């Protein structure tokens, strides 16, 4: 309470009353004069108060972002405290908005879809991933009923069904593949819909199932044949010649199973072991000599086989894997080239230092449409021919896997009836020359230090 100001106001009132009375006495209406003086001053005060309050209300209603009007006295106090409370509320609100924005940014950053629904299943918010999977527009579809936007019955039933213990697996409404959807309640009656793209997982599961079924089939066939022969041997009294023929066929089937198991083991090793070292050097000439001995034994003189002159090259990596990669190509060439055909192995380093090891044959060739699928496991152009020649259908899958682990690639070029050329491209960082007299530009550029990194 401002006592000075109160006393001043009382003084003004008394003075106005006395002045009114003095004027009233002159006019012969002394009491009325005092009342008129008093009421005039009171009215002026009331008007002034009214004007100040209106300024304050106007500021609050229209322009509270601007500083409060400077008012004297009580209204000044009211304006000051109102502005202070207003600014404090604004700061709290801004902090709450910032927190909320951070939460939403976190949801936005997740690789999964997040969709927030109110109690009546209207869209409150969704991140970009959810919008993409469900084909929503985060702004336009706000407050729309989700069941009007995502109409798949399986989703609607799941959402409205109320049992959300287990996730729902459904086809993505907009893309190829599958989504896993989980609904969680929050804040009493709101729902959070979480979406995860499980296409890759589903695809891997399907591939695993397909692989197991292929392997079972591949093993069951020779086993069935074997058990049939065993029964024949047990039940029939065969002469020696017939007996030897059946034993020969049995050996063929068991060799087929052995090859399959050994190829499966090679594949498992390729998948399960670390990337081949970049500082373990394998002499290419020694490796080619071992492969040459193998292919000559398989060919048994039926093909003209040409191996390159000494290359004096070394490749960095795992010897057994490089052996599998080159060996499978050379043995395939022998298996798919009729008697009298030619098999030629070439090795060279190109100008940018990559080693190219090519296996060319004049065999049956492969028509264009099969080429992209040749490296798939168990893919065969002619299954019966592959089996006849002891193929497992895993050879080229092994080659591709092994060369890719060395940072290289397998290139296939073939023409039906005219032969094939399979080329392994080994990156320059894994190639070096062992020839002290390195002369060709290609070999010079390929000569690298053991410590150089793989690219
Ligand atoms: P397989 O054990 O059946 O030979 P691969 O994975 O090694 O399996 O080869 C896949 C298929 O590619 C073979 O079944 C065959 O049809 C074809 N193929 C591979 N190499 C050659 C080649 N040099 N000439 C013709 N066809 C080939």
Supply the key terms.
alpha+beta; 455 residues; five-stranded mixed β-sheet; disordered C terminus; five-stranded antiparallel β-sheet; Beta-Lactamase; 13 helices; Helix Hairpins; binds adenosine-5'-diphosphate
Write the topology of this structure.
Blueprint: H1 3-27, H2 30-62, H3 73-109, E1 113-117, E2 123-126, H4 128-134, H5 146-149, H6 153-161, E3 168-171, E4 178-186, E5 190-197, H7 199-235, H8 240-272, E6 281-283, H9 284-299, E7 304-306, E8 313-316, H10 319-335, E9 342-349, E10 355-361, H11 383-388, H12 395-405, E11 409-415, E12 419-426, E13 431-433, H13 441-446
Parallel strand pairs: 7-9
Antiparallel strand pairs: 1-2, 1-5, 3-4, 4-5, 6-8, 8-13, 9-10, 10-12, 11-12
Residues 328, 332-333, 336, 361, 363-366, 374, 379-382, 386, 391-397, 420 line the site of adenosine-5'-diphosphate (ADP).
- Report the end-to-end length measured between terminal Cα atoms: 84 Å
Give the strand content: 15-25%
CATH architecture of the largest domain: 2-Layer Sandwich
Ligands bound, unique: adenosine-5'-diphosphate
Cross-sheet strand order for the largest sheet = 2-1-5-4-3
Gyration radius from CA atoms, angstroms: 45 Å
Number of alpha- plus pi-helical segments: 13
Number of strands: 13
Q: Please identify the structural class as seen in this structure.
A: alpha+beta
SSE order in H/E notation? HHHEEHHHEEEHHEHEEHEEHHEEEH
CATH class descriptor of the largest domain: Alpha Beta
Dominant shape? elongated
CATH topology of the largest domain: Heat Shock Protein 90
